[in-house]
Amino acid sequence: MPGLIGACCADCAHCRDICPTGAIAKDQSGELEFNYGSCIACRVCIDNCPSKALVALPSIYAATSRDDLSRTYVAGGRGSDTAEKEDHQPKGKSRAIKIFAKSMHVREVDCGSCNACELEIAATGNPIYDAERLGIHIVASPRHADALFVTGPVTRQMELALRKTDAATPTPKLIVAVGSCACSGGLFGNTSVAGAGVDQFVGIDLYIPGCPPSPQAILKNIIKLRG
């Protein structure tokens, strides 16, 4: 995902104009704002920046609210602290997080994804990442789940299925939006056939952006969420 070296920026806004998902904007003060929830990490802005002021960041920012996925870059390249908060615990969910600290059963819900996020979620269980050793288990039914991993922008055909899955999951529960489509709609969302993110339909406790987020990013942020 892109980051800005402010001292090199020519303030041409070319990156904003060519971003395919509109993830880059200028705020009221004229500073560049990056919405990492919408970013698909295509590198178009990095590769086409005339002043070479954009660089690839080494990690993915996750947050407990969509607003916290945005980061404003000011003079000198220093970014706002909004997207770097280490506190991943949603308000009112402390009891649930304590319950899931050592064991969490997860049901994955595909709501119109291209399947890239599903591949990365599946990879968390391979011998390299081995999510089972961390107490994270994939289950086949929402009735057995402690958490839902939701991918995709939520197509019209999947809206009812998502709501039913949410209703079938016992409380306390956690709902995680995995991938840029789930966080904001991505390339496919905010149209007549797909929503602009999962939080239009169900409440979200954690947003993990990326197109797709790596298994390492998924596990790292789930561990932070559990405390």
UniProtKB/TrEMBL annotation:
Occurrences of domain 4Fe-4S ferredoxin-type (ranges): 1-29, 30-59
Record-annotated membrane-spanning stretches: none
Sorted UniProt keywords: 4Fe-4S, Iron, Iron-sulfur, Metal-binding
Keyword Cell cycle tagged: no
Cofactor or coenzyme needed: [4Fe-4S] cluster
A UniProt-annotated Pfam family: Oxidored_q6
GO terms, molecular function: 4 iron, 4 sulfur cluster binding; metal ion binding
Family under the similarity heading: Belongs to the FrhG family. Belongs to the complex I 20 kDa subunit family.
PANTHER family: FORMATE HYDROGENLYASE SUBUNIT 7-RELATED, HYDROGENASE-4 COMPONENT I
Name of protein: 4Fe-4S ferredoxin-type domain-containing protein
